Amino acid sequence: MAERSDRAPARWRRPFLRWLDGVEAGWAVPLLLVCFVAIWTLYLVVAYAGGGLHPDTLEAWTLGRRFAWGYHKHPPLMGWVTAVWTFVFPSTEWSLQLMAMANAGLALYFVDLIARQFVSGHKRILVLLLLMLTPAYQFHAQRFNANSVLLATWPLATYCFLRAFETRGALWAIAAGCTAALAMVGKYYSVFLVASFALAALAHPARRSYLTSASPWISVAAGLVMLSPHIHWLVTTGASTFSYALNHANGNALNSLGEVKNFLLGLVAAMSVSAALWILIAGTRLKQFPADFVAMSSGLKLLFYIAIGTLVLPSITSLAMGTDLPSLWALQGLFLFVVLVVCGARYPIERFYTVNVTVITAGVALVAVLVAAPIHAVYRNNHGYEEGRNFYVQAANELTREWAELTGEPLSAVSGDDSLAFATAFYSPDHPYYARPFEYQYTWGLPRKTTLDRGWAALCFRGQDYCGRWMEWVSSRAGHFVRREVTLQATLWGRPGVTRELVVLMVPPRAADPQSGVEDFSASKRAAEQGSQQ
């Protein structure tokens, strides 16, 4: 049937076939990616109407407001990307939602750079469509953070390494080192990708030719040069990002076995829809897989070793160190397996199947936008989010209004519950700065006196006992303060929704001070330890 359809396609298939004809002309892939970014951005706008941005995205925006070579929780790339984006685009919900999906679209473009090294025509489209049917490029991508920023950096680094290995050229070697460093400043989990590059180079039959050339050593040097400012930051600030990462290493052997099992099962589940479609496409031709595997090209063999490394190395590390290993940390590596399967198949794939997968992918996207997104928005308006995203805008506006009435000045510093503080910094027209240093983000210490003298505010939801006790503790030091409680109500398209109690603590400025203060936790570490016993 597939061959017959390709010879005499139905009328409704002909526009899709003309589109597939444009792959090698250079316009079909960009059109697909633009449509993908547009429709899934629209999904985010509708699904999270009245729901606010995810706290991780707000944290990335907060980090990006102050350039640094490193931040105390994660490496700096997510903050840099957000800063560059908001330099060009406005700091609004739709803008950051577009940023998240543009990152996913860019990731798919880099995947296509890899795929076109091995296949041409509609097979390139098939690779992208199968990836679009995984949750990585929509639902994982929308939470822009240190994990999702790797969606683009991993395929870019892989492409450059592939080209450096094949050409031995100095420029590609430099690009491989620089893009690997870029992945590392996205998240240190990328060490498994870099280690997989080394593993692949050692396992590949052409290893002697590559390792005796200048290419790998140029890559190492270029990567170290690119990383040197961040390494200097680590050395001079105590490497707190490593400390944060090591907080995930607190399990035992039995827990680690469970983590590895769930890690692998989670990745299988993420690929399940795409895998099922590929089985239907290949049909009885699946029996050719062993022969296709043996006959893989040099470049595909390299990708195979990289793919195996990105699974085996984190699994071994988890078993050895007792670390957490959620599967979402590895979603950015799914492209390796899709490229291997589709590009490694030596038999021709009828365009009939690519058109069918295109229709399925488009249908899923349309159902998501027209059906699932409104249902999700209505449900969350009535039931809320655990982190309170429904109330971010109202909380920021309420605090801004209360502060203006109390002081007649713009709000400059905000603290309290992290999610609320990030949201207030973003949504308040005053755009106050997050006042707690990130190295003490999870330590509930006292603000220093200069901070309180300049003026300071904090927010908590009622029921957050840790935050409420901290407010009482700060109040005892502040002397003059105003504490208010308000009831916030979520709204969606004019419909009232769930309510939640907000507690606001405001310390008005005592005197003009040209130097702004932030909470000083190092000076009050002992007090913080005493306060945590309350």
Give a short synopsis of this structure.
By secondary structure, this protein is of the alpha/beta class. The chain is built from 23 helices and five strands. Helix 20 links the parallel strand 1 (413-416) and strand 2.
Structure explained in plain terms:
This protein has 534 residues and is an alpha/beta fold. Helices cover 61% and strands 7% of the residues. It has helices at residues 2-7, 14-21, 28-47, 55-64, 77-88, 93-115, 122-132, 150-167, 170-184, 191-203, 207-211, 215-237, 240-246, 253-282, 289-294, 298-321, 334-344, 351-383, 392-407, 418-427, 449-454, 465-478, 525-531; strands spanning 413-416, 433-434, 456-461, 482-492, 495-507. The chain has a five-stranded mixed beta sheet with strand order 2-1-3-5-4, sandwiched between helices. It is globular and about 80 Å long. The N and C termini lie far apart (73 Å). Residues 512-534 have low confidence and may be disordered.
